[in-house]
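Listing S7. Sequence submitted for prediction.
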Amino acid sequence: MNKEVEIISWFASQSRLSPGDYPIGIGDDMAQIQLADGTSVLITTDMLLEGTHFDLAQATIEQVGYKAMAVNLSDCAAMATLPIGAVCSVGLPRRFGTDELRQLHKGVTGAADRYNCPLIGGDITRWSADAPALAMSISMLSRPVNCRPLRRSGAKPGDVICVTGALGGSSKGRHLTFVPRIAEALAITQLAHVDAMIDISDGLSTDLNHICRLSGVGARVEAKLVPVSPDASKTPDPLSAALNDGEDFELLFTLAPTEWETLRKGWRLTTPLTYVGVMTGDRSVVLVSADGSEAELVPAGYDHLSQ
């Protein structure tokens, strides 16, 4: 168990939330709050740090604003929910002034407008002179649409494992320009019943292990079926990049074979869907190589507390 999973599991063990009031709590892509009128709202938050999540020597300030909004939109996609509003808090380095704030705002609102998720407030503060890094946190609300919010913990033995898009190589620039898969999530849940879903932020190897651990199941992934992005294909080990790079922000989901056939036949969006393996009942997470040999699929993606 990596350090991030260990501390999140501890946080969850300390929680005393009522399941009736908070059906989804610590440990998923979003938390859910049940309202008095029988409806519910979901909430997520993500923080981006200069030097960890972006490098202003290579990224524009506008791109950073876009990414800060888009990572939260990706959480909404992971739960198959529709975003409804966001707030943003920014810790500014001393070198930032009005022009930089306007560029940041342009990036945030560009992503917000694209997904009809208005920026409705926030907070601005400034670091002392000896802390020059930009820090940015966005919290977002969403609501269920086609189904109950999808969780990481619903996968079943026999489910097929699928992903959207292609994986790996996000550090070449795609981590700043990726498209949150909200349209894809809503289309998937219109066509089929999905058992579990997560967005691939820490890498397929890590995020699939999250689903397995929380669902109490195992998995077998066929290496030859994993969709490798063009950027990952240029690396020394394309498969490793596709499995472990992270920040793909594609969807990883499981569903029954019959549901997969219904989804595959009815799919009309241009984003590809790829079958990559099957869930099992023995809790082992295995990568099957092209030659048929098997090895443990170790969660070798990003660990926020080990870097």
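Caption to Listing S7: primary sequence and predicted structure tokens for the chain studied. The chain is about 30% helix and 25% strand. Residues 15-144 form a domain with the 60s Ribosomal Protein L30; Chain: A; fold (CATH 3.30.1330.10).
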